[in-house]
Specification:
The structure is a single chain. The strands form five sheets. A seven-stranded antiparallel beta sheet has the order 9-13-14-15-10-11-12, covered by helices on one side. A seven-stranded mixed beta sheet has the order 18-17-19-20-16-21-24, sandwiched between helices. A five-stranded mixed beta sheet has the order 1-2-3-4-5. The two termini are 26 Å apart. It contains 27 helices and 24 strands. It is an alpha/beta fold. The structure holds zinc ion. Zinc ion binds next to loops.
Length: 683
């Protein structure tokens, strides 16, 4: 029992492969908990005489100064014993942190190619004038250099300023050349490539005045982002203040100031933050009862309101589907779910967590005094000429209430059946199924696989026909004109099954049941499909055959299901490659062989990770499908209560395009990656 609990708690995993030991931490190496475990694990490996250690950082999103020191110390000890530490699979943020700190010169590192964002200073100091260097790199002409030099003599402005001012070069190109000239590494600054604790070493006023940002403090050397590494007086002032050696890193001044603001918690309390909220952003206030009036007054003009508003607005702009706000012992943590993956966006101080939660409860018209029971509510905001609904839910926990806001952006709903991303063959089948006068169509997949969207698009398509369409949903996510939408009200005993019974008495042609979760709903849905209604619903199973066996497991008679069911569609949402950082590569031979591709050379794509995509390499999602039209053989199999294996065998033999094959097709078209397809299908 204890063993399993311990296993579950682990965040650093080890595996012995040949003479090497792989050490793989899972999660950002930014807290003491995980760093302690990492240090302990490395020490244990060495105690066991394992001196060839490979740190696999594939699942480490970012790291802090202490994590880097732990690795450096391990390298010292290993080299002493004739062994060696090597770092592999580092993502862009981690790789850049390792370059910034000079780590890569001491520990062999093999990671994502981040050439675009970090220039490591490999060459020694090269006193070649900047103009000459830019000409040699064929970025500007000698004539332009001469002209700039003439202007420099007259105006006294900096050479770099002049060539960017004239629009000949981008600031980034000049800085890169300057970095090369001075043998200083260059970084594109953003959250994740600095250690917040180290940023705090320098007071914000000084940092702002000198336009510098301390990034990491490793073994007494502080790497410092600056747009002007030649400014020796500033650097020595900082060395005096911090009592350390400074290692200058080139970065854009604008990025430095932006990160300075972000890294400093207090900014969320300052006026500056207010300006980030668009003028037209507005909370559509619920009718607030008298009890809330005072709180509203208290909160009026409060920074908390601005913080919450800007959070919501940023979530909407970034296309987040959920906002998670969860307290821990020391901080509150705000994360956005974008394209199905959670990203940390902010860690406000724990003291303001209750205020954030209370503000949201006020917005959702809930009881702010109730902190021991879970609560649900709805918040409406108006932003950029759109009305957006947010579903509020809170859950009490050890350190306070965890809040999740689900963004229900009606404008984002794909209600056009042609835009679901189906292959032509699948779309033809789907439309044919929807054209049937009666029968049951099931859409299946895990939570967040886009099932509801497929059903809404179907309803919207059917809505153009003269039919009586009724829905039962929990909750109603998108409103469609003309359609009769109903929300489940469990509290007053109106669950899916009971409402379905009521609705069937009202002579609908088409019924959409949000989800089949119990035997009663399953049975009525099948009966309705057999008595002249077209019934659409979703099930929470992994694949299409799973939906069939689930219905039978729930107690539906196989012979009834076999005649009611006309189609099953399994689907997933896969992330698409970020267009801003997309690159192509040739598929290795083993991949070509594994997937049975006949071409000799196959070009695939992937994203390197950039600012646009939170360094994930992905942006946006699309659906992949596996659509089976029931009939003939499949009907007979269902009637004979066939096992899952027999059903899967049938799909294989019937040459139906499976989820995986649909996904592989998209990989070949350069829209997504094999890793992404495998991730969503196996999860
Ligand atoms: Zn990108």
């Amino acid at each position: 029992m204890n063993d399993t609990a311990e296993q579950l708690d682990r965040k650093v995993f080890t595996a012995r492969v040949g003479v090497e030991t792989f050490v793989a931490p899972v999660g950002p190496l930014t807290s003491d908990d995980i760093n302690d475990e990492l240090q302990q694990t490395l020490a244990e490996c060495m105690e066991k005489g394992e001196y060839g250690i490979i740190a696999d950082l594939a699942d480490v999103g970012q790291l802090n100064s202490r994590a880097i020191e732990i690795f450096l110390d391990a390298q010292d000890q290993l080299l002493h014993r004739g062994g060696r530490l090597k770092v592999v699979s580092a993502g862009p943020l981690v790789m850049e942190s390792l370059l910034i700190t000079g780590f890569v010169h001491y520990v062999p590192t093999q990671g994502e190619d981040s050439q675009d964002t970090v220039r490591d200073a490999k060459s020694a100091y090269d006193p070649m004038p900047l103009g000459e260097l830019l000409v040699r790199k064929e970025l500007i002409t000698q004539e332009q250099v001469n002209e700039a030099l003439r202007e420099q003599k007259k105006s006294g402005r900096r050479f770099g300023e002049i060539v960017t001012g004239r629009g000949w070069l981008e600031e980034r190109q000049v800085l890169q050349a300057l970095a090369e000239q001075l043998a200083v590494p260059m970084v594109r600054l953003r959250a994740g490539v600095y250690d917040p604790d180290v940023v705090a070493m320098l007071d914000p006023e000084t940092a702002k005045r000198l336009k510098v940002l301390p990034l990491f403090n490793v073994r007494g050397v502080v790497s410092l982002a600056t747009a002007n590494p030649q400014d020796m007086p500033s650097l020595s002032e900082i060395e005096d203040r911090l009592q350390t050696t400074v290692r200058p890193i080139m970065a854009r001044a604008e990025d430095i100031l932006k990160c300075l603001d972000e890294a400093n918690d207090d900014v969320f309390m300052s006026d500056e933050f207010i300006t980030e909220v668009d003028g037209d952003f507005e909370v559509v206030e619920n009718v607030v009862s008298d009890d809330y009036a005072t709180i509203d007054e208290m909160a009026a003009g409060s920074p908390i309101i601005n913080l919450v508003n800007s959070l919501i607005q940023r979530a909407i702009t970034d296309g987040a589907s959920d906002i998670h706000i969860e307290p821990s012992r020391k901080t509150s943590r705000v994360r956005f779910r974008i394209d199905g993956v959670l990203y940390e966006v902010m860690t406000p101080r724990i003291e303001i967590h209750p205020a954030i939660v209370s503000r949201m409860k006020v917005m959702a018209n809930l009881d702010i005094a109730e902190r021991r029971l879970p609560q649900d509510g709805r918040i409406q905001v108006f932003s950029r000429q759109r009305c957006i609904d947010l579903r509020f839910s809170s859950l009490p926990g050890l350190y306070g209430e965890k809040v999740v806001l689900r963004v229900l952006d009606k404008n984002n709903a794909i209600l056009d059946i042609n835009k679901l991303g189906m292959t032509t063959a699948n779309l033809d089948t789907y439309i044919r199924l929807l054209g049937r006068s009666h029968g049951l169509i099931l859409v299946t997949g895990p939570t967040g696989s886009g099932k509801t969207t497929s059903l809404y698009a179907a309803l919207n398509y059917l809505n153009t026909l003269e039919k009586n369409i009724v829905t039962i949903e929990d909750p109603v996510e998108y409103q469609i004109d003309i359609i009769n939408q109903n929300e489940v009200r469990d509290k007053i005993g109106l669950g899916f099954a009971k409402m379905l019974r009521h609705i069937l008495r009202q002579d609908p042609d088409i019924v959409m049941v949000g989800e089949i979760r119990d035997q009663e709903t399953a049975t009525i849905a099948v009966q309705a499909a057999l008595t002249g209604h077209l019934v659409l619903s979703t099930l929470h199973t992994n694949d299409s055959t799973g939906a069939i066996t689930r219905m039978i497991d729930m107690g539906v008679e196989p012979y009834l299901l076999s005649s009611a069911l006309i189609g099953v569609m399994a689907q997933r949402l896969v992330r698409t490659i970020c267009p801003s950082c997309k690159t192509t590569y040739l598929a290795p031979p083993e991949i070509i062989e594994k997937y049975g591709w006949t071409d000799e050379r196959v070009q695939l794509s992937r994203g390197r990770g950039c600012q646009d995509c939170y360094d994930s390499g992905y942006k946006g999602r699309m659906a992949i499908h596996e659509l089976i039209e029931s009939g003939g053989d499949l009907q007979r199999l269902i009637m004979s209560n066939a096992s899952r294996d027999e059903l899967n065998q049938h799909i294989l033999e019937a040459d139906i395009e499976t989820l995986f094959h649909d996904g592989l097709g998209r990989v070949r078209q350069g829209q997504t990656t094999i890793e992404e397809i495998s991730r969503v299908i196996s999860s």
